[in-house]
Amino acid sequence: MLNTLKYTVLSLLRERDIVIWVMLFPLILSTLFNSMFVGLEETGWNIDPMPVAVVSNAEGDAGLAFETMMDALSQEGDDALFAPKHVSSAQEAKTLLESQQTIATIFVDAQGWPSAEFSPGADDVGVSIERIKRTIVADVVDDFCRSRAAIEDIARTNPEALARPEVTDSLMKMADYTQQMNVTHSKAVDYVRYFYALLGFAAFMASMVGLSAVGKALPNISALGARRTVGGTSRARTLVGAVLASWLISFASLLVAFAYIRWVLGIEFGGREVECIIGLAVAALMATSFGALVGALPRIPFSAKGGILTGITCLLALFAGLYGTPSLQLADKVANSIPWLAAMNPVKQVTDLFYSLYVYTDLAPYLEGLAILLVTTGVFAGVAALLMRRQRYASL
Amino acid sequence: MTIVNVENLVKRYSDVVALDHFNLQIEAGEVFGLLGPNGSGKTTAINCMLQLLSFDKGSIELFGQPMAPTRYDLKRRVGVVPQEIAVFDELNVRENIDYFCGLYVDSGAERAKLVDEAIEFVGLQDYVRFRPKKLSGGLKRRLNIACGIAHKPELVFFDEPTVAVDPQSRNSILEGILRLNREGMTVVYTSHYMEEVEQICSRIMIMDHGRSLACGTQDELVRMVSTGEKVEIEVADLSREALGALDSLAFVRRVEYDDKVLKLLCDNGPHNLASVLGLLQERNVAFGRVYSEPPTLNDVFLEITGKELRD
Predict the structure, then answer these.
(1) H or E segment at B277?
(2) Which chain B residue's Cα is nearest to A396?
(3) Which of A91, A210, B263, B264 could cross-link with A288 by S-S, CB 3.0 to 4.6 Å?
(4) pTM over 0.90, yes/no
């Protein structure tokens, strides 16, 4: 069997289709994904200081409190939130807003109360980052107004309370009425799903390896298979050697793709690399079994089987969310409305395996996914074994 | 010792009877030729013997033991050179031979020696690192043979090993087969090229429609048929008496003399030409060029099957 294993591995490694589609394609696709998605996500999390026009009509020291806050939020450095432009008239501010030199105008009235104004139709702007910026400006203004109103109310009704540190501390923290916490195992970043779908796609694409190996070992598929079958080595050993070689190649290819995505492109897998590798090993086994099944199908020309397999892989990848946002939405919709159908999709099974590792703190969803993948593998392997069990053929 | 014993083998493809109570006995040390046109059942018979194909009836014994798909002990004593080139396109010459030899021989050291010998035997020393795609048709055939014989089997099946090769390669292959036979291998050789079978086979079976039509040595086969020996002699002047004397020879079936050419159709026999020429000399008849055409395997086949071998 070692002889079969050695030479099957060698022959598979030298097959151009396998090198391109199983080994190189996932690397190329993940590089493309990295340039497409990762840059966008980073832009979303790093907001530059926002240019706002400030028109102050405050009398005396009435506007001092707001001015102090704006100064604090505009100090140069990584944390600067605003880049304020103090202008003298509403007209001047309007001009800046219309020319998009600012994203908002903050008017401070005679009593020092601020209000924000945005350009008309700003809500129609489709770019989400712009909406986020406007929300931040509005929140800052609202927070200031709420805090000032509360302080003034306390000062009027119970001025002694302001002398107590716990009250002033509480007032200072009013703006922090939300607490940041993670409900997921890792920070929720949407684009990682594309990489997981890519790994699902790559895993299923690896079934080409099993297809080729089995095609070369079965007498009803190829002359080479017939020649090997009449040799002095048992058919079981030949087939086990071929399947084992396919699994090794598939697993190695997936490992390379995983290592590239994880450590070269820096995509997170929730810090659970060992579990990922176990998942890849099972995914490779599933792909090999499916490849063996397709390879053993009778009455279909072997040359057509590669095309059939690629077609099935691409179709299943659509429902795993590989092809961008619409595909992802479609995958989610199918998963929500027809969960059993989604569960039957091996590409999605692999995709979800990585997603469960990334999202859930608990390992139960991962183990459940692994079990589903093993059952799928068992079904594929069982049908393949049924097709391959024949010792003699009615015709060749 | 009978190495191959096939009795009453019947194989059907739906309504088509591919082997019709086919019988075959091959003795150790023979080069046995299985001759027949395309579709006559040669490859089907071999595939049944090798347990690739199921069959409806009959028995197959190799080396005196019943053959079965799992009789790997028997398979290890058999070599197969299939009609199609059946090698790994991605492995080079040496790797291919080593792989196929490894189906029979486990020891790496022993295999290395056998592989070297096989490479030398088929003359592929200069191509050991070549992949099959880089080889010519003839070299590929030689690789196919090396893969089948590297483990030094006792019995080798050659299924039309010379299809689509040039005359030099064909000759080399045929000489190689004879060498293998001299080294002790029993050879089963299928072909539809009659001249090849004539050249190397010690015994020949002619088959068609899945049946054995005739079996024997070449001489035995020739004697089985009525086709006679044709003799043509250039004679400038031949008298009626001489013509009559020729016609009265016991082995002469028909005699014609036209346009200074004497044509005789004779029964098969070893001394027909010498007897005719002797009679002409006795009667002082001068003659020029002489042609003699004893019956060939082609004639035998035509007479048995009533059709020309194809392709």
Answers:
(1) helix B272-282
(2) B53
(3) A210
(4) no
